[in-house]
């Protein structure tokens, strides 16, 4: 009987291996079309994703701006291709959080899915979207928190966060905002993700010149979920976490550099708008983390933050002093509180630095001025170095005891 079972298993192995092979997106049969004549009004959109075989799939709509999210399970992520600026609609590809490929399509306005059908032969997913009024638009609204999957201290591999390296240097984790399937703010052909990645490399060089060790959450154009960004910082034993952004808000609402620290009670309207923009990036990853933040966990986190929060504020003050000395124009309230998820780490001093706003002409000019960026990077590096010196002095004083 066992011999028969073994023979049957050997016979099935080729088909099992074949079934395990990921599906491949066929670019020749992948099409995106706008139906009807252009009469100045929104029109239906037809999307066809050609595949080597039929696969399980999920389709969802999200807002800010309106986008279609398509998950193709058991599917290999297509190779990146350069966007065609002549095309008003274009797909962005990246990995799906539960495996497979994810496609993101930015929509021209509120729409709903009229139909979504997976055909077996030839294999293809066909989706049709139709325009709807704003009151009929029904995007997903998943709750988010980066505390989901918080690793235990033993899993960090570097001791507790905030411990200096053996040679006395500190380690900073830089987080260029957005990336991959989430470009962040976009003005014309400019994406926040690309601008911040470039600046992160410049700031890394300035920090290393000060003897500070630097790790980046991403080194290229890839999507990193919010949870993983803070987990990277913790796993690296970061002494300081800095997230870099250059957002977009309606004209006149924000201009100048701003540094944010964690404050879930903040009632600043611009900060609330920005928090929605930042945290919505994880909707692209389909995360539903609503079952976290139990009372016990919250109490422990609050205790940890009693030490961490003042250190975050001190780092922000050092940075503002150096930016002011370097002649960098800042918001009239340069240090502000906000409930950005990347600032939630209870055990790592964390800052979110808005270099400026892509929607402000003056800020946009600065962001593309090499001299301004160099001054900004140098001032931030000086601020981090002076904060680190104060941290070391406090540590020595605390160790001396009464």
From TrEMBL:
GO BP annotations listed: peptidoglycan catabolic process
- Which N-terminal stretch is annotated as signal sequence? 1-19
Q: What is this protein called?
A: N-acetylmuramoyl-L-alanine amidase
- Indicate the segments forming the MurNAc-LAA domain, all copies: 230-385
Recorded E.C. number(s)?
A: 3.5.1.28
Indicate the enzyme's highest-level EC class. Answer: hydrolase
Q: Tell me a Gene Ontology molecular-function term this record carries.
A: N-acetylmuramoyl-L-alanine amidase activity
Q: Which Pfam families match?
A: Amidase_3 (PF01520)
GO CC list? outer membrane-bounded periplasmic space
* InterPro entries associated with the record: MurNAc-LAA_cat, N-acetylmuramoyl_amidase_3
Tell me what reaction this enzyme catalyses.
Hydrolyzes the link between N-acetylmuramoyl residues and L-amino acid residues in certain cell-wall glycopeptides
* Keywords in alphabetical order: Hydrolase, Signal
């Amino acid at each position: 009987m066992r011999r028969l079972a073994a023979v049957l298993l050997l016979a099935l192995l080729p088909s099992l291996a074949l079934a395990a092979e990921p599906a491949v997106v066929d670019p020749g049969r992948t099409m995106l079309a706008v139906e009807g004549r252009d009469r100045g009004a929104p029109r239906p959109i037809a999307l066809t994703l050609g595949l080597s075989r039929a696969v399980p799939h999920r389709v969802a709509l999200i807002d800010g701006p309106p986008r279609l999210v398509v998950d193709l399970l058991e599917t290999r992520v297509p190779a990146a291709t350069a966007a065609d600026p002549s095309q008003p609609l274009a797909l962005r590809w990246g990995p799906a959080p539960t495996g497979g490929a994810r496609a993101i399509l930015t929509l021209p306005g509120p729409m709903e899915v009229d139909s979504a059908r997976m055909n077996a032969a030839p294999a293809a997913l066909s989706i049709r979207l139709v325009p709807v009024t704003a009151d009929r638009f029904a995007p997903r609204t998943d709750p988010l928190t980066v505390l989901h999957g918080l690793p235990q201290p033993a899993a960090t591999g570097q001791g507790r966060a905030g411990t200096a390296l053996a040679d006395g240097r500190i380690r900073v984790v830089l987080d260029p905002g957005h990336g991959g399937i989430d470009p962040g703010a976009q003005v014309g052909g400019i994406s926040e993700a690309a601008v911040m990645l470039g600046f992160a490399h410049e700031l890394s060089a300035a920090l290393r010149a000060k003897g500070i060790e630097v790790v980046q959450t991403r080194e290229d154009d890839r999507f990193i979920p919010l949870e993983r960004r803070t987990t990277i910082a913790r796993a690296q034993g970061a002494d300081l976490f800095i997230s870099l952004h250059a957002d977009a808000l309606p004209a006149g609402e924000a201009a100048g550099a701003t540094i944010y620290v964690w404050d879930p009670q903040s009632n600043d309207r611009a900060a609330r708008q920005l928090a929605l923009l930042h945290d919505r990036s994880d909707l692209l990853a389909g995360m539903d983390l609503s079952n976290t933040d139990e009372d016990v966990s919250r109490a422990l986190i609050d205790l940890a933050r009693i030490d961490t929060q003042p250190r975050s504020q001190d780092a922000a003050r050092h940075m503002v002093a150096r930016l002011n000395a370097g002649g960098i124009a800042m918001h009239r309230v340069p240090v502000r509180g906000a409930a950005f998820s990347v600032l939630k780490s209870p055990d790592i001093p964390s800052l979110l630095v808005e270099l400026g706003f892509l929607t402000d002409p003056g800020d946009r000019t600065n962001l593309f001025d090499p001299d301004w960026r160099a001054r900004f990077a140098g001032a931030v590096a000086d601020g981090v170095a002076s904060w680190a010196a104060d941290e070391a002095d406090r540590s020595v004083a605390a160790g001396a005891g009464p």
